[in-house]
Every structure is written in structure tokens, then in C-alpha cells.
Amino acid sequence: MANTYTQLYFHIVFAVKGRRNHISKQWKDELYKYITGIVLNKNQKLMIINGMPNHLHILIGTKPNCNLSDLVRDIKANSSKWINEQKFIKGTFEWQTGFGAFTVSQSGINNVIKYIKNQEEHHKKKTFKEEYIEFLNAYKIEFKNEYLFTDE
To answer: Where is the Transposase IS200-like domain (predicted)?
Structure first.
């Protein structure tokens, strides 16, 4: 085969440290634009980003040479540094260690986009922790509840 052709999509989820409600409506769009820039500078495609005051959902399309852990590390490190430089919150902003990443098929992209767009509606019915555990169960990912979240 003369070329490499891929479609690799990931639904990425990560939380503010301690799941604190630090992401304000006043500056969340600026944060989303900043994160979009990070993803684009890494030569990946951000399809949608949205979240709640205590967590984010991102749908990205990646190239086969993308190391997902490195990409998420860079998103979290650079965005938290930027939030702190902007002094958007009192004290220090941090993301919780770790993240969830779930593969998405081409046929599932529109459903994931709708899901991410409608975060506020989803969270009228369930907490972030409930939502996240549902993802882990749906993808048959084994986990230990005591290690799922840190509250520090």
C-alpha cells in the first residue's frame, strides 16, 4: 500500500482537581479556544469541546503518530498554566491526574458531538462521577472505585 489512511477519534474526559467548580462561564469559551490552539499546534483535529464547571469533554481526530497521553498531558499542562497566568481563579488551578479516553467509530461521531454539546442537560440528571462510571462500564474498563477520583 502506497499511503497510510486512518480515522482515529477519541472522546477525552478529564476533571478539575478535586472536581471543584472552577471553570467559569465568563471565561470558558476563552479556555476552549486556547485548548483548540494546543490541539491544532500538535497537528490534530479538535471536533468539539464542552464541559461543566468541574470537567471537560473533547472529541478529537488524531493522526496515527499521535501519542494520546502526551497530547492530553500537553493540553492539561498548558491550559492550567494559562488559566493561572490569567488569574481567573483565586489560588492555583489544577487538573486532576489522569483522564478517560474512549474510541469513537465514524458512525458514532454525531452522537458523541450531540452528547458533548448537551452537557448542561446531562448534568441536570447525573453527577460527573455517575457519568464517568457509566462510560467506564459501557467500554468494559475495569476500575477500582477507591482509585477513581482523588478529592485532594
So the answer is: 5-119
